[in-house]
Specification:
The protein has 197 residues and is α+β, with helices and mostly antiparallel strands. The protein contains six helices and six strands. The chain has two domains: 114 residues, Succinate dehydrogenase/fumarate reductase flavoprotein, catalytic domain (Flavocytochrome C3, Chain A, domain 1, Alpha-Beta Complex), CATH 3.90.700; 57 residues, no CATH class. A three-stranded antiparallel β-sheet has the order 1-3-2. It has a three-stranded antiparallel β-sheet with strand order 4-5-6, with no helix packed on it. α2 packs antiparallel against α3 and α4 crosses α5. It is elongated and about 70 Å long.
Length: 197
């Protein structure tokens, strides 16, 4: 949700599209809101999440999120509008878990999992925005994965594959494409190297 405590996007979209939408919000700010059921499920799935969210069980304050035993308590700490957030969560709970979300959310993430109601305290609110994790540019290669210099010539003995060769994603990232180009161009480079020896 945004600073007005309103949802603004189908949260199951790819992180690239979510980032674009987050950047379009006031102050480029957005918030992730979840309850104890969601927190505990994530903590079981991953040691990283267990460490990140275990502070709630210890009653510790976190620099990266706030929590409260009611929506009102959590939202007050987050500095958002309590009435707006309560109304947003009530609408979400009434519609999203039943496949009737007005923003089109039908899964938790990328088509997997079913949206669940946000009902069990403590409730957590974490500020979020987009982050740059790749530049989608890199060295130029030819059809045999040889690196090409600024003059358009092959650099003998230098090959490249994967993310360092730039983007093939288009307008949005599709899960798995980084592996695809790493594996395919890596295999191609290895094949060319093996044949040249």
């Amino acid at each position: 949700m945004n600073k007005a405590a309103r949802r603004f996007v189908n949260e199951s979209l790819s992180y690239k599209l979510l980032g674009d939408e987050a950047l379009s919000q006031k102050d480029h700010a957005s918030y992730i809101v979840f309850d104890d059921n969601i927190r505990r499920a994530k903590m079981k799935e991953s040691p990283k999440d267990a460490k990140l969210w275990g502070a709630v069980d210890e009653g510790k304050e976190m620099s990266y999120a706030v929590y409260g035993n009611s929506i009102e308590e959590a939202v007050k700490k987050a500095g958002l509008d309590p009435k707006a957030l309560k109304a947003t969560i009530e609408q979400y709970n009434k519609l999203a878990p039943f496949g009737k979300d007005p923003l089109g959310r039908k899964s938790l993430s990328s088509g997997y999992g079913k949206p669940v109601a946000i009902v069990k305290p403590p409730f957590v609110i974490m500020p979020a925005t987009a982050g740059m994790i790749g530049t989608y540019c890199g060295v130029r290669i030819d059809f045999e994965a040889h690196v090409i210099d600024v003059f358009g010539e092959r650099i003998n003995g230098l090959y490249a594959a994967g993310e360092m060769t730039g983007g093939i994603h288009g307008a949005a990232y599709m899960t798995g494409t980084a592996f695809g180009k790493a594996l395919s161009f890596g295999h191609l480079a290895a094949d060319v190297i093996a044949k040249s020896e």
